[in-house]
């Protein structure tokens, strides 16, 4: 059995229950090798380990390791949270910069950042185009309705969002039928032009234009 393996085995015994990292174990083993040979017995090895433990207690080393692991995990969690928040807000994800990066690495990083920004701008243009196209389709479906109805309907549309094209298409189909029904109701009731005064028994020759309040009330009733 090599000296390193023997020291590592004795360290497990001397530091039982102590959560040392592999890096720390390797460092302690390297220090404990000093003055020993492959023929050294457990007593000699234990003596060296005890000297190291007296100078830097294994428990304190393990506590430091635990602290550093917890700190590294928190930093990683914070970075991931910041990245997800940036994605959610449509902003570029924070870039972790290596303080030791070379000039070439810095150039490549800047190029990648520029490309990511360009892709985001292109994506935003594409999304804006989709929204405008959908609005135009809905506006066309509203043809034949009153200006009051059309204005309010488009105002409500600007507050909507859709999962995908299928979701929008289904909504547009239903809304188109609603718009046709309202346009027909306007035509029947004469809200867009003139209607008899006093109902069916009124003078057919005496007509008045629907008031703005009546139009608004009708629009609100439909929407």
How would you sum up the global shape?
Answer: rod-shaped
Order of helical and strand elements: HHHHHHHEEH
List the domain count as a whole number.
Answer: 2
Task: Give unreliable regions as ranges.
Answer: 191-209
Distance between the termini: 86 Å
Helix content: 55-70%
Radius of gyration: 39 Å
> How many β strands by DSSP?
2
Biggest pleated-sheet summary: 2 strands, antiparallel
Strand order of the largest sheet: 1-2
β content, as a range? under 5%
Helical/strand content category: mainly alpha
Mean pLDDT: 74
Number of helices: 8
Secondary structure: elements and pairs:
Layout: H1 3-14, H2 22-32, H3 42-55, H4 58-88, H5 103-141, H6 147-157, H7 165-189, E1 194-196, E2 207-209, H8 212-222
Antiparallel strand pairs: 1-2
What would you note in describing this structure?
A two-stranded antiparallel sheet has the order 1-2. It has two domains: 79 residues, no CATH class; 98 residues, no CATH class. The longest helix is centred in the middle third of the chain and has 39 residues. The protein is built from eight helices and two strands; from the N terminus they run αααααααββα. About 9% of the residues have low confidence. By secondary structure, the chain is mainly α.
């Amino acid at each position: 059995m090599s000296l390193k393996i023997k020291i590592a085995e004795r360290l497990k015994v001397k530091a039982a229950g102590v959560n040392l990292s592999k890096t720390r174990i390797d460092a302690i083993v390297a220090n404990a090798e000093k003055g020993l040979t492959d023929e050294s017995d457990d007593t000699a090895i234990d003596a060296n380990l005890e000297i190291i433990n007296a100078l830097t207690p294994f428990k304190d080393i393990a506590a430091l390791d635990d602290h550093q692991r917890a700190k590294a995990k928190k930093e990683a969690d914070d970075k991931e949270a910041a990245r997800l928040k940036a994605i959610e807000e449509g902003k570029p994800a924070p870039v972790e910069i290596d303080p030791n990066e070379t000039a070439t690495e810095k150039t490549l990083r800047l190029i990648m950042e520029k490309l990511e920004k360009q892709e985001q701008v292109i994506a935003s243009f594409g999304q804006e185009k989709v929204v405008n196209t959908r609005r135009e389709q809905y506006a066309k479906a509203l043809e034949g309705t009153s200006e009051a109805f059309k204005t309010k309907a488009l105002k409500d549309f600007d507050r909507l969002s859709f999962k995908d094209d299928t979701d929008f298409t289904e909504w547009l189909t239903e809304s188109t039928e609603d718009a046709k029904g309202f346009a027909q109701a306007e035509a029947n009731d004469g809200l867009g032009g003139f209607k008899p005064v006093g109902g069916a028994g009124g003078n057919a020759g005496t007509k008045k234009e629907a008031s703005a309040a009546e139009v608004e009330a009708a629009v609100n009733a439909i929407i």
